[in-house]
Amino acid sequence: MRNTKWVRTLLTVAVCAAGVVLLVRAVLCKLQPPVKKQTVMIPMRDGVRLATDIYFPEGAGPFPVILLRSPYDRSLGEGIARDAARRGYVMVIQNTRGRFGSEGENLPFETDGWGRLRDGEDTVEWIAKQPWCNGKIGTWGGSALGITQYLLAGTGTKKIACQHMTVGAPSLYDGVVYWGGVFRKAMIEDWLRISQFSPDALRIWTSHPTYDSYWRERDMTTRYRYANAPAIHIGGWYDIFAQATIDAFVGFQTKGGAGARGKQKLLMGPWTHGVFQDKAGELTFPNAKNPPTTAHDMWKWFDHYLKGIDNGIEREPAVTYYVMGDVTDRNAPGNEWRTADRWPPVNATPTPFYLHPDRSLSTQKPTQGGTLSYTYDPKDPVPTVGGPRLTLPAGVMDQRKIESRPDVLVFTSEPLREPLEVTGRVKVVLWVSSDAPDTDFVAKLCDVYPDGRSFNICEGILRARFREGFTKEKLMEPGRVYRLEIDLWSTSIVFNRGHRIRVHVTSSNAPAFDPNPNTGEPFRASERTRLAHNTIYMDARRASHILLPVVKGR
Asked: Whole-model pTM above 0.70?
């Protein structure tokens, strides 16, 4: 009986509290300026109409405009759109072709760039002609919404005043759909399926495994000169588009048109695809969600470039980046935000750390010949553990669960006597041979803590047939030795004193990447597979190594 009365009391309190919350919300809504919403179908140059929601501030206008072009449900942006309207902006949220009421084929990014159809540019032209637009148009959004912004910039439109891009990518081929010529299986297949794109989308993307004319029409990195607006590029060290974000900043900043060159900002944190978080995988980085810049604040960004408010945003440092470190030692160097006027932010020295046959890693070049071999079976690939993932567990994770596999070669340094900072792009150079006509090579950089935990820092992969570039395929000759260069993208970290540096070399990372069947057949031509016996060479003439951008003098 007493328990019943206690439960009734709790329910009464909860109901009353909920009522108070609803009442407060109702009052606040009445106090806030009203927001008018209008849904229109905007015609593109071929007559296809795109579903578009427009949110208007109170008053006659005209107003500055913020544009979002998205493959996702427009209603997801209603909250921020109403906030924008109350701040004096018209916000336009448009669904791309074939998406949520928009006409046309349901294919991602097909008509968002500078080809025969230019939906982004057509939309901007339409907005600029509306009586409620004062001529100042900005773009905003992240991930797919960031990609549509990059493609829009590539059209050369001069009617964009600024852009605010988070975890996006300027090129769809290398670093998005493919990496090192290897299809990013889990991310792409999951995203297309979950987003319910047409099945033709996967067929189209997998039918272009080389960098051909299809991808060139979707590669803004060849068109930086067409960028015309100030922009901020926000990314994370463990984000799926980490290097793409950096490349876009550098391209816009140094090769962009007059309206873009020298007017870019870059913000890189220790984040996965979800930015402004302290935790990335299994580690929590101190103060990671509080960068010492306001450039990422979308309202300050738009207030300055769309309203002309002098809030100092353009005087913020060009680059703000987080240097990772030992998260268990409060006195360890790193784990801090830094600023710079360019990227790379410091003069780092590309320093080779050599792989040795005894599985050690050091700055000493091998003097005697040696090799290590392993067997790669496509039916038993090395499982993906953390890293830059979208639909798989992402971020920093202990790699020891895969380091005991016979198909993973592990090279480890001695404990560091002094901290070692690595900031910039990381590459691995391997001398290899295989008895298969084609296979993959995967490299991973790890930070080994004194207690033995081995945490992934960055990684890369290369399909051997693309060793001379991604525009053509060239199979391997069995037994012949080749030089491969694997791009591990960029990072910034201080390896603490007592830590060890570790490098993995293997031939798979699944399901993040599509396992190479080793047959040499065209991509996904059949389900046939074979074993590959792969060898790494480590001698004075063929010295396999990792190139670390080492920062000295800090």
From this structure: yes
